[in-house]
From TrEMBL:
<keyword id="KW-0472">Membrane</keyword>
<feature type="transmembrane region" description="Helical">
    <location>
        <begin position="237"/>
        <end position="258"/>
    </location>
</feature>
<feature type="transmembrane region" description="Helical">
    <location>
        <begin position="193"/>
        <end position="216"/>
    </location>
</feature>
<dbReference type="InterPro" id="IPR039447">
    <property type="entry name" value="UreH-like_TM_dom"/>
</dbReference>
<dbReference type="Pfam" id="PF13386">
    <property type="entry name" value="DsbD_2"/>
</dbReference>
<keyword id="KW-0812">Transmembrane</keyword>
<protein>
    <recommendedName>
        <fullName>Urease accessory protein UreH-like transmembrane domain-containing protein</fullName>
    </recommendedName>
</protein>
<keyword id="KW-1133">Transmembrane helix</keyword>
<feature type="domain" description="Urease accessory protein UreH-like transmembrane">
    <location>
        <begin position="88"/>
        <end position="247"/>
    </location>
</feature>
<dbReference type="InterPro" id="IPR052776">
    <property type="entry name" value="Chloro_ReproSupport/MetalTrans"/>
</dbReference>
Length: 261
């Protein structure tokens, strides 16, 4: 009888231990929920960014002719601007969702994106032309068609500037209704912590994917530069023309009532 009572007593959990059990389980569930939400946000940010043709076309002219590190920084800066635009749009949606006309914003947002693509393409074409003219001057060729120059001045190609303009371009591309892809899934998650993890990792995924893409483009152009003469100028011309064509297509599509994506 004594053995049976002691066995029953040992099998009954202590009240303090029993109260700790739910805490441990809830903590494990919370960490699992945060991890799954964070990874989901990270992959969603990568896919959302790399699946946008306007993103890829806008960044290609800015990345060609740079080193892998410089190109990666360009993409990361553009991605930070894109994140800022998405955050601004998301906050406006949450605060003024009853007053916002999503279709009107989408139309005007697409027009602004088209104009920025035209600006990026035109800037890339101008820079490629300047580099080509500088190369001819360094070789002693007179652009006016007269006799070859006796002494060629040491003119170095001007480096493309990266700074606030790149960041602002990312902001413009982020101010689109597809920013709701970042907000709505976070609102549907079971807790605020999971939603915050999703949002934070979505932004990190955007910066990571853009930096990786531009680093890849820059490293490829650097690798080809030693094998193919003037490949940087040719790639810049091609990427810039694609940006101009896509910008025109977006604007024309808005005029005729169709969209490319």
């Amino acid at each position: 009888m004594t053995l049976t009572a002691s066995a029953l007593h040992s099998s009954i959990p202590h009240p303090a231990y029993a109260s700790v059990q739910p805490v441990i389980k809830s903590g494990g569930l919370l960490s699992t929920e945060l991890l799954s939400s964070g990874w989901a946000g990270f992959f969603a940010g990568c896919l959302h960014t790399l699946s946008g043709p306007d993103h890829l076309v806008a960044l290609a002219p800015l990345s060609i002719g740079r080193s892998r590190l410089e190109s990666g920084l360009v993409g990361a800066l553009w991605g930070c601007g894109h994140d800022a635009g998405q955050i601004i749009f998301g906050l406006l949606f949450l605060l003024l969702k009853d007053r916002l006309h999503i279709e009107v914003l989408r139309i005007w947002g697409t027009r602004v994106v088209g104009l920025t693509l035209l600006l990026i393409g035109a800037t890339g074409i101008r820079e490629a032309s300047e580099v080509q003219e500088s190369g001819l001057i360094l070789e002693g060729v007179d652009m006016s068609g007269s006799e070859p120059l006796q002494q060629a001045p040491a003119v170095a190609p001007r480096k493309k500037k990266v700074g606030f303009t790149t960041f602002a371009t990312g902001v413009v591309h982020g101010l689109q209704p597809d920013a709701l892809l970042m907000v709505l899934p976070a609102l549907a998650l079971p807790s605020r912590f999971a939603g915050a993890a999703y949002l934070g990792m979505f932004l990190v995924g955007t910066v990571f994917s853009m930096g990786s893409y531009t680093a890849f483009v820059g490293s490829c152009s650097e690798a080809l530069k030693d094998r193919i003469p003037k490949i940087t100028e040719k790639l810049t011309w091609a990427a810039s023309l694609v940006a101009v064509c896509m910008g025109l297509a977006l604007l024309v599509g808005q005029f005729f009532g169709f969209t490319l994506y």
